[in-house]
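Lab channel / #folding
Pinned by the channel admin:
"Please post every new chain as: sequence first, then the structure tokens as a reply. Keep commentary short and put observations after the output so the thread stays searchable."

First post following the new format, from NK:
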Amino acid sequence: MSGAPGWIEWRDRLADRLSGDPVGADPRLRRKAALVLVDDLAAMVFGRQHDEIRTFADAMSRGDVRGEATVVAGGRAPRERAAAANAVAAGWDELDEGYRPATCHGGLYAIPAAMAEAEVTGASVDDLLNAVVVGYEVATAVARAFPAPRPLTLHPHATLSPIGAAAAVTWLRTRSGGAVLGAVDAAATMSMAGQFRHATVGAQVRNVWAGGGAVLGFLASDAAAAGLRGDAVTLFDVFGSTYGQSVDPAELASERDTWAIIDGYHKRYAACQYTHAALECALEITGGAPLPSPEDVVAIEVATHPLAMALDDRAPTTALGGKFSVPHVVAAVLASGSGDARVFASGGLGDPTVAALRDLVQLTPYDSLPEPPHDRPARVTVRYADGSRRDAECLSAVGGPDRPLGEAEVLQKAADLTSGHLPDFAGVAAQIVNGGVAGDEPWAAVLASLIPEVGR
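Reply from TO:
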């Protein structure tokens, strides 16, 4: 069996890319990998304010006698359990980095496992960054090769997180592209069939999938090293046959000359990226202040793209449900005049003004959907009882490929997310990105300066 025409060749090319020292050969790649690392690590720090994150972190470190790796929300745990706790924290607020060319969060899948393995084994900062690049590359390559069908059925946090984690951990252990793909084959068989619906209805088990993927990544790496492997068609079988996702022949034939992480985007808003265009419309309408006379609003019309049309819950009951609800996101911004991360926390779900505005939101398809990068637009119209209206349109939200957050903006975001807990975090993070931290510095020492024990 060969999977599909070009499958084995695609796989061989991918393996060839994964050996060596990518960040050492490309300063731009190193800076981007460092930026993704500190962005997701800041999201972990911000996430630990939530009771659920602290409780889960305690469970991951309960009864531990080794204490080998840092749990960002507090304590220490075996590496795979620390990675699980940190992955859940990183994705909780929807502030982690993402990838627009395919439905995937490459950093979330690679970073928690790579951080824990690097800390325990004494790996350097550049070792960690290389592992992040490799884990990101493999997870996104699979996501591009097997495009998720629309409407979305399976969630990539479930299907792809074991693959990104296994790739990152195995690179740290072997530096071998062949060994990485051997672990990825095993990881693919362990991927989880988590339904995308869990996100849209706010079932918070969805937030655990990246943590489960981190644990499974370690398991797959250990299994492959012991000779418990799949074969060259295993990955194809899982995604093509079991999940029923059609392979993209153009992707199999492509000769990539850049690393996928370069195309990663950074998020400004703590909500599903599919809501961001509507969110920015609401911000424009408010002008930075709460919507005047919300009691006189009679209708809120949101024309939006197909991915957002499914996010239509007007009565979310969890923070996750709110972040995946266009009506809630729009109503929360209109009521507050703010896009701050705290606006989308669970405390706003029961706000009477938000609830009243939420009930008025009607979603309609955006006519004549533009081509990428304007394929996720929105138009919002707020209508008042006196016949007046307020309108705004956003073709592409900030953070997308045409409106990327700059390096300084991402570092400022990290500072904003961490200053309340760890005032020194931002300075160290900037040094990692700017090269002020030497590449051969042990990651464990750098992590201790980012998250000192007093902060935990």
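NK: The beta strands are 69-70, 76-77, 98-99, 264-265, 297-304, 361-365, 378-384, 389-394.
TO: also worth noting, The chain has a mean pLDDT of 95.
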